[in-house]
Amino acid sequence: MTMTAPQIAAQGTGLKARPSRFLILFQPHNLVWTIGGVIIIAAGILGIVLQLVPSWRHLYLTQDLTATFQAPLSTGHVLGTDNLGRDLLWQLIAGLGISLMIGIGVTVLSLVLGLTVGILGAYFGRTADAVSNVIVDVTWAFPAILLAVLLAGAIGPSVTTVVLALALTTWPGYARIVRGEVLSLRERDFVNAARVLGVPKLVISVRHFVVNLMPITIVIAVYYVATAIIGEAGLSFLGLGVQAPMPSLGLMLSVGQQYLNVSWWPVVLSGALLALVVLFLNAFGDFLRGRLDPHGRVPRR
Amino acid sequence: MTVSIVQLLDARKVFRGRRGAPDHVAVDDVSFEMSSGETLGIVGESGSGKTTIARLVLSLARPTSGHVYVGGIDVGAASGAERKRLPRIVQAVFQDPFASLDPRMTIGASICQGAKRAFGAQAAQAALGDLLDHVGLPQRYRDLYPHELSGGQLQRVAIARALAMKPDVLVADEPVSALDVSMQGQVLNLLIDLRHEFSISCLFISHDLGIVQQFCERVLVMESGKVVEEGVPGDIFRSPSHPYTQSLIEAIPKVPA
Fold this sequence. Notes:
The complex is a heterodimer. Chain A is mainly alpha-helical.
């Protein structure tokens, strides 16, 4: 039997030859993901900055009604223009920024709510558990779109509507995971030891439960951002979310499909970017899961 | 006259059976006293209720009926202020050192966790160096995480964490049974040294009769929630009066010469 050099080297040390934590990102089969990820992250950060700096908004908001539906690579516009003659590349970047901000907002809200309710249920007595279980079950049964319609009717369609509707429907899933994890963590001897040492329950919750939940939480957070971006696109497409002139990938799809017979690229480009971002986030989540959650506690999606 | 530091009075712990399963009486009206400075062993097979007694004394479980007194406090009916005093009276060393330390907390933080609450952060930090010396660990270990240490070293950390609270009683629930034999000896010797040095009483729970004989002044033999025999380990193991004790002793594997 012949062996390759790394195999022999691995035998010698008694260890499997494994690339280091970050070098793995630069191996040939991962390089496409790494490059794509860097581009998407850079575009996303640029998009978020565009929202925060008012003097840059003209980049994607300036209309030119004499140059509508310009094809990609036509004069002055790398990806062409939309129905109002706005630059599509800047629209996409700004839209990605909005989508990411909504995704991150939804995720942070869901995680805070899920952590609080999950730990309350699992560690603060039977009454708290019963109450939180009922809340989780009822909220979980509520569809995001229905909630968004109700919220849009009550407070009007806006970014806030999208964030609330999505956060209020995503957190129960995470609360369930937290509850299950804490139910097992609280029986571990280091929690018993902390109790014997006189550490209060609230401190045990933060110092032992939250800290030990961080790895799976990071993995879940990445998946949640992806899900929230799709949700945002869906709600904005239905007119329940982001309102013009604020750009968003869902809104661009919605407006673009009205002019599909005139120009196909706004729809295709925003749809493709949406798909690529979600694909990347899911792949990134899988990568993190392999690193942070080797026992597979985060449910597969 | 010696004062009793731990006393159980008809303490009973029943675990309610779920979905029609019968109730399980883990501790069945047990009474015993442990005087200050004494080392009391509890032996018995798995499921005999030894660990439940440890949990009762540590107020990790409440007695279903009867009383558990620790340092004069009835732990089943303690007030908030009394409850706050308990950590400085009784401390624990658990069986599995890998489970009894938070994997995401440094050794130093683990040792100081209770002490900084009881004595203040500065005092706890100041005592940390001495504690590491006492349990025979190098000073640089304070910044390491549990996965960087061996089982025996981790058990020393757990002992240091208990000692940091300057307790009167140490409850050691099978403290060496998860360690390999060479480590067992070292950790036991450490416990013996510390017991003399800090004049701590020790409730020592084990299924290993040999270790109990070496370590304890008095021993209780437990079978299915009841204390069936009590006495000085040497006497009990030489001439066991209860059939269960006899069978426990016969169960020690013997290698024919």
